Amino acid sequence: MRLRLIALVAATLTLGACLDDPAVRERLGVDEQGRPLGPSPGATPATPVPSGAAASPSPGASASPPAASPNPSATPSAPAPGVTGSYRKTFDPLDLAIAGPGYFVLATRPDPRGFEELLFTRTGQFDLVYVAAGSPAPGMPTVVGPGEWRLMTPEGLYVLGYQYRGEEAALPPSESRSMSFQSAFRMGGTASVGPIVIDSQANLNFAPHFNFKGQLLSDQKPPMDTDATPLQVYVAIAQFERPAALKPRAGFPAFTYEPDAGVVAVGIAGITTPPAGVPRPVGDANLLRPETLER
215 - beta bridge partners? Predict the structure, then answer.
């Protein structure tokens, strides 16, 4: 105890001697008695910054706005009607993206009877769904025979297109243009647009894929029917006079038709060589990107 007291007295005497030096007092911020110095006359004391608060910028400096907090509930929405997005390569042979202003045509039932049973989308994610005999998909007739392939979306919607037996020259001579559902999709006509359904005995089992016209191929060739007749199968593309008037479909990246959207033109992408005097606005304005989806 005595040793500690002696050390304390010695330290105090040493500090007192040091405080006689003005330079030491200034460096320590104390007066001759060792008391902390107060603010200089006329000086404005600094306002303490609360923990977590940002300091005020210096005079003349512009304050940066605070970064916006991410909204966890925000979800990406479908592009506005008539607006194309960016593309990503998927390498899925049944994926398609549209390079142009068109839309794929989907149906909520296998025999759509009006625009209210159609959806128009730029998301070309399709599947070939095999349906065995006696096990129909919702709304489809019972399959008789060995079964069939149906081109559908993962959500179970039917993909509409053109189907012909024979050579490619059998394609429809013109695109349909109308505000009438029956006329635009030629329901009941020889060039009608309907769900794509292919007999399972057609040779579609080897690497089915699409080309830039939306033609379904097997090993780079049209599939052959059971009697060796080529099957011409094309995905339909619809184009609108005023696409901004289409109505977004809740919960799905697609749109429904509104009369304000005007005339509907339906055709095949990339078919640009028309007969004399027959325009093909859909074919001229649209190409398809295989193995690709629009973001």
Answer: 234
- Give the start-to-end residue ranges of the domains of the chain: 1-37, 87-294
Q: Which DSSP category does 105 fall into?
A: E
Q: What angle do CA 165, 230, 151 make, to 5 degrees?
A: 75
Burial category of 239 from C-beta neighbours within 10 Å (exposed 0-12, middle 13-18, buried 19 and up)? buried
* CA proximity to 294, closest of 265, 266, 254, 260: 254
| Gyration radius of the chain's alpha carbons | 37
Cβ–Cβ < 8 Å for 199, 163: no
| pLDDT surpasses 90 at 262 | yes
Helix, strand, coil content of the chain in percent (nearest 5):
15, 30, 55
Q: Which residues of 276-287 are buried (b: 16+ CB within 10 A; e: fewer)?
A: eeeebbbbbbbb
CB-CB contact of 235 with 210 (8 Å)? yes
Q: What is the pTM of this model?
A: 0.69
From the list 280, 268, 188, 283, the residue with the least C-alpha distance to 232 is: 268
Distance, in Å, from the CA atom of 55 to the CA atom of 32, rounded to the nearest integer, reads 35
Phi/psi of residue 218, nearest 5 degrees: -130, 115
DSSP 254-293: EEE--GGG--EEEE-TT---PSTT---HHHHH-EEEETEE
Cα 278 to Cα 106, 121, 271: the distances in Å are: 26, 27, 12
Cα separation, 160 vs 124, in Å, equals 12
Distances (CA, A) of 223 to 52, 57, 166: 68, 72, 11
Does the pLDDT at position 273 exceed 70?
no
Higher-confidence position of 166 and 239:
239
Of 66, 101, 92, the closest CA to residue 210 belongs to 92
